[in-house]
Design goal:
This protein is mainly alpha-helical. It has 10 helices and 2 strands.
């Protein structure tokens, strides 16, 4: 991976008329803001091809609706829905381990449903999309010393892409490609903000369900503030103020999580 951030040696060595070789030029440093802008551009350019799971699920459901018979896909999505409902119940009950186990099960069924609905080519196309995003990133950063955070993420993306290539099942391959996409999207502030708002909304709904019809005064105050912060985050997102959206959404999520923790048995 490190070699991908280095320009060819032949382009660095300068030979003087006397055949004296000078020292290689240093790589040009790239600041965080520039790297973030490049990452966002890569994400937007790759958006139509990156295997983003919500988009794949939407396409799969459209394919199911257009087909007279796709029992395998329908069954997989039904199982995913049951796992999701059970996961939400576990979250309300404060059982984090069971919640995460059921979310993994939901993901496995969902990926199986996507493949059954869209066909095996979706797995190949998913990996191609990830590879295209990697290539775009490398092209934009060639000869640059990128910030360590970005280098680490792209190294992880390449590892996930390799695991997708060598996976022993279509579901596993698609999982690694989807995971690589999530890592790539994590470099985009817009995506991070959208994900933070989604998490805050989920936790708020779970906390409100947990208190039921008998919330305490402290819980009412916390949930009201959590709800207001989600509104702040959504307004900031619409205004493309990504950092404010992330901060507000995370603050809302913390409040809702405290309510859930207080209701845990």
């Amino acid at each position: 991976m490190r070699q991908r951030w280095l320009v060819p040696i032949s382009g660095l060595l300068l030979v003087a008329c006397a055949d004296t070789v000078t020292a290689p030029d240093a790589l040009q440093s790239m600041d965080e803001a520039t790297a973030t802008a490049i990452a966002a551009a890569v994400v937007e350019a790759s958006d139509a091809r990156l295997p983003y799971l919500p988009a794949l699920v939407r396409k799969a459901r459209e394919a199911i609706e257009a087909s007279d018979d796709n029992a395998e896909a329908v069954t997989a999505f039904r199982r995913a829905r049951r796992a999701r409902r059970a996961a939400n119940a576990a979250l309300v009950a404060g059982d984090q381990d069971e919640y995460h186990r059921l979310k993994r099960l939901e993901l496995r069924f969902t990926l199986g449903g996507v493949i059954a609905a869209l066909g095996p080519d979706v797995v190949t196309d998913a990996l191609a999309g990830v590879d295209a995003a990697i290539a775009r990133w490398e092209e934009r950063t060639a000869g640059k010393d990128v910030p360590p955070r970005f280098a680490r993420v792209l190294e992880r993306v390449q590892n996930l892409a390799e695991r997708a290539r060598t996976a022993d099942s279509a579901v596993a391959s698609l999982y690694f490609s989807v995971s690589a996409t999530e890592a790539i999207l994590s470099l985009s502030p817009r995506h991070v903000a959208r994900r933070a708002i989604r998490k805050a909304t989920l936790l708020f709904r779970a906390a409100r369900a947990a208190v039921g019809d008998g919330p305490t005064d402290d819980e009412v105050a916390a949930l009201r503030r959590a709800h207001r912060l989600i509104g702040v985050a959504e307004e900031a997102f619409d205004a493309k103020e990504w950092r404010l959206a992330i901060r507000a959404a995370n603050a809302s999520a913390d409040l809702s999580q405290k309510v859930l923790d207080g209701r845990a048995p």
